[in-house]
Structures are given as structure tokens and as C-alpha cells.
Amino acid sequence: MSSATPRAIAPSRRRHTTRLLAASAVLPLLIGSLGACGYGSKKTDDKPKVAAKGKKLDGLDDVKVGYFANVTHATPMVDRQEGLIQKELGGTKVKPFIFNAGPSEIEALNAKSIDIGWIGPSPAINGYTKSGGQNLKIISGSTSGGVSLVVNPDKIKSVDDLKGKTIATPQKGNTQDVALLNYLAEKGYKVDPQTGKGDVNVLRQDNKEIPTTLKTGGIDGAWVPEPTASKIVSQGGKELLDEKKLWKDGKFVITNMIVSKQFLKEHPKVVEAVLRGSVKTNAWIKSHPDKAAQDINASLKQITGSDLPPNVLDPAFKNIDVTNDPLASTLHDEAQHAVKAGLLEKPVLKDIYDLTLLNKVLKAQGEPTVDSAGLGSK
Questions:
Q1: Same domain, residue pair 192 and 256
Q2: Which InterPro entries match (predicted)?
């Protein structure tokens, strides 16, 4: 996939966009002017591996998709190289936008700067709740696992050593932030969810900056996704906890696929094609794990300008599981964790899922269908 620039923004919309960005806590990946990239998305100029070819679905020129340059977003990162989604879309071009945090991706979805996105559960829950269920639907799972609490082993040897220490997360209210705050509360530590101050200090910092901050002593540990966790370990850090150990059967959703509710209603054929390509990509990843890891590294190189050494890439990739199943029951639990952490008051989860098209695709490909755990259409 190649990244693209959103369509020109009208003056009135540009003013509204500026207000949204001013309210956002996430700006690190904003590159150039608002009209050039928007909402913290990152523009890259590499050419697509598979070109749009053939009939346009629903008459659309393109479909705008968002995701992160993370190993936990393996499906779109691999597809960036293999182009299975583009093949399903025919002449409708995939236009990717890269984000570094979920809230900015939700803003882009709300502003119609993207149509479909891969995103963590907490931003999806927050976005759905704040809109009263009007802005998005979760339409598929993508990955499970791939999150760890990694620490400076000279300062932290056990959970009992966390008091008085500073632990980083990628962003206030993001999936890892919620997980850390919930974990600390369960261990009896008190932390103000808004300021991050308390028995354990929580510092919200961009993923790409966290390894350096830990190495220079600015923080004592971090609750982070891959490949950041494995990078920290490669620099002498220690994994204190793999989040899988906190979940039944070691499975919990870390990345979902979401779609604008309006886009789903108006362009179901396009959404179905993207889902079909996603399911095929996940199957390809499972049957070609070594090449899939190489594809992720190639995408990281294109997006960030650097790839990962084997001692980071290999453990990071092995720590995630691609899945079409959204693991809906774990999303419910993560919403309750956000409430417990003090970051969400009354989560709206009713009808957050619409798995109708996914199950249609799975059935057609002879795969088992998945369930919404009572939180939407099966």
C-alpha cells in the first residue's frame, strides 16, 4: 500500500479540523500542514506493491484506511507488501494513513479523512461511547497479544518494586494506558488517571521515544506494544509481565478493524472486499510466518525510515497472534477496566459490533464464523 494525502479541506472544515487538533493530546506524527496529512497521520511516498486495476467497487476511486506502524498491526503492515486487499478491491485504490495513537485515528474517522481503520480496543470504545454509537462499527478482529510490562532490571525486580517508580504508556486513555492503570489498581496502587501521579507515576509518551527515555533513566519501565517491548529488552530491559498471563487462554484483543458507520451503510461491497482481503492476509501470515515478519520490517522501513534487527523483530512477531475473531468478550472486559481506572464513566457497548460481512466472508472461505458476545450483529 502507498500512503496518500486527504482531499482538500474546505475553509470551514479546516477551521473545525484545527479545533479538533488543538484539543488532541497527540501531535507527534503531524507532518507538514493540516491539509497535507491531517489528524496526526503520516505521509509516505512509496509506490504500492499492487496497483489498483479493473472495475471500481461501488464506483469509488479509493478507500482510505488507517493503521499504526506497529507489529500489533500485522495485517495491514503485511498487506502493504502483499497487496491482497488491493486485489479484492480491483480498481478502487487503497489509500493508507499512518497514525501513532488511537484518538487521532478516531478523529480522522469522524472527519471522514479515513473510512476504515485498524485500532486498539480502548480508542474504539471511547469513540463509540462519545458518539452515542453513531460514528463507527467494529467489523473484525486483527491481532491478540503483543503487549508487555518491561522494566529496568536494576530498579525493578518484582511488582513490589513499582511503588515510587515511573512507568510509561504510549498515550493517556490508549489501550496500554488502561491496562496499566487497571493492573496497578488491582495491585493496590493509587494513581490519578488524569495526571498519572500517584503511588506509581504514569508518564504518557510516544512509543518511539520510550526506549530512549528508559535507557537514559527518565522512566523505570513501560507498558507497551510490540515492537517497542522487544526493543527495550534488546537494550538490557527485562520483561516483568506478558499481558497474556492476565487473560483467559492468553487471548485478548489488541487490534480491531473499525469502519465509519456511514461508510458501511453506503459502501458495503467495498467493506466486504477489504474484509475478504484481510481474512486472506491473516491466512497468508499464518502459512508464511518468516516472510510475514520480513514484510512487517519492510513496511516499517518505508514508514519510519528504519527497520528492526532480528533480535527485536523475531520476538516481537512471535508475541502476537493474528486473528479474525474480535474476541468480543475481552473488549467488554477492557471497557470495564477503563471504568475502573477512572478514564470512562458509562461505556456504550450495545451494537458496537457488526460482524455480518465478516461472517459472510468467513463462511465463503470455509472458515469458522465468530461471535459478538451479545454486543452486536453476529
A1: no
A2: ABC_SsuA_sub-bd, NrtA/CpmA_ABC-bd_dom
- The answer to whether residues 22 and 77 belong to one domain is yes
In a domain, 3, yes or no: no
Q: How many domains does the chain have?
A: 2
Dihedrals phi, psi of 91, to nearest 5 degrees = -85, -5
- Mark which of 250, 281, 297 sits at the end of a domain: 250
Q: Domain range spanning residue 102?
A: 11-146+252-377
Q: Which residue has the cell 479515513?
A: 114
6 within a domain of the structure (yes/no): no
Closest by Cα among 191, 190, 232, 201 to 215: 232
266, 141: one domain: yes
Please tell me whether residues 364 and 264 are part of one structural domain. yes
Task: Choose one of 222, 250, 278: the last residue of a domain.
Answer: 250
Tell me which of 5-9, 66-70, 145-149, 369-373 is least confident. Answer: 5-9
pTM of the model: 0.85
Supply the CATH number for residue 318's domain: 3.40.190.10
pLDDT tens digit sequence for 105-139 = 999 999 999 999 999 999 999 999 999 999 999 99
CA distances from 345 to 24, 246, 341 (A): 20, 23, 10
> 207 and 235: one domain?
yes
3-state SS, one letter per residue, for the chain:
CCCCCCCCCCHHHHHHHHHHHHHCCCCCCCCCCCCCCCCCCECCCCCCCCCCCCCEHHHCCEEEEEEECCHHHHHHHHHHHHCHHHHHHECCEEEEEEECCHHHHHHHHHCCCCCEEEECHHHHHHHHHHCCCCCEEEEEEEEEECEEEEECCCCCCCHHHCCCCEEEECCCCCHHHHHHHHHHHHCCCCECCCCCCECCEEEECCHHHHHHHHHCCCCCEEEEECCHHHHHHHCCCEEEEEHHHHCHHHCCEEEEEEEEHHHHHHCHHHHHHHHHHHHHHHHHHHHCHHHHHHHHHHHHHHHHCCCCCHHHHHHHHHCEEECCCCCHHHHHHHHHHHHHHCCCCCCCCCCCEECHHHHHHHHHCCCCCCCCCCCEEC
Residues 17 and 131 in one domain: yes
